[in-house]
Amino acid sequence: xxxxxxxxxxxxxxxxxxxxxxxxxxxxxxxxxxxxxxxxxxxxxxxxxxxxxxxxxxxxxxxxxxxxxxxxxxxxxxxxxxxxxxxxxxxxxxxxxxxxxxxxxxxxxxxxxxxxxxxxxxxxx
Length: 125
Prior knowledge:
It comes from Bradyrhizobium sacchari. Residues 6-120 form the Response regulatory domain. With 125 residues, the chain is an alpha/beta fold. The chain has one domain (6-50, 60-103, 114-121): Rossmann fold, CATH 3.40.50. Helix content is 42%, strand content 19%. It has 5 helices and 5 strands; from the N terminus they run βαβαβαβαβα. It has a 5-stranded parallel beta sheet with strand order 2-1-3-4-5, with helices on both faces. Helix 1 (14-26) links the parallel strand 1 and strand 2 (30-34). The longest helix is centred in the N-terminal third of the chain and has 13 residues, at 14-26. The radius of gyration is 13 Å and the shape is globular.
């Protein structure tokens, strides 16, 4: 029996975490929510998800800093970034480093699903 893909959701906004987790579960995936990059690094040190959906603007460790730390430690998996404050410079930085998608907030469920399904299928956006 195939293992259910785990999707990590890293966002400091509890409402966003809950709605993304609900969306992910409705698609048949397992959702694991983390309130910060630090929380993810502490509670999932070697347990890599099939994909991560992460906010860019978070306290202590931003989403792009989390991405850099994961890459530096050899942990590579698709990351979908979401932000309420889109910036072309941040978009270029995270996409160049291997992010799968860079979405503004709010994003439609269809946009998120499209990025997630492409990421899990190993397709480029």
